[in-house]
Histidine phosphatase family protein (Nocardioides bizhenqiangii), 169 residues
Amino acid sequence: MTLYLVRHGRPLIDRARPAAEWELDPAGFDDVWALRESGRLPARAAWFTSPEPKAIATAQLLTEGEVGIVDGLREHVRESAAWIADFAGTVRRAFDQPDAPAYDGWEPLSVCRDRVTATVRGLVADHPETDLVLVGHGTAWTLLVAELTGAPPDLDRWRDLAMPDLIVV
């Protein structure tokens, strides 16, 4: 069994709304279709997505099949979008101190890590002989990969993730 962790496509950034509400940017659809056509995703798998609109739309562009929406796959909570001017720096602070909010209105990364890891372990237990394609978010996937592999979070890999992108575990 293999986990295919897909980072959502490029969102339409709306500084008046939290990132969890952002839609997928239609200008980035070609990038999502290119991932679909790349042959890097399995022909047969169980598909699940975060409930965030940008993740759901990415999943819908990647497969014609059924996709389950799973709340536990959502990104860490980031109220408002005031942090966007220093997103990379704020995320790095969050990884440096995962038990504390890195910005006002941010969920500590340890909470996200625990939620996402428990959710994925449950999906794996429910589908022990099936590849899983999970569509979600870069920070959540960075936390998950570290937890599953026992390695520290790879912030260089996080920084270099495209929208969309794929991590295979």
About this structure: DSSP finds six helices and five strands in the chain.
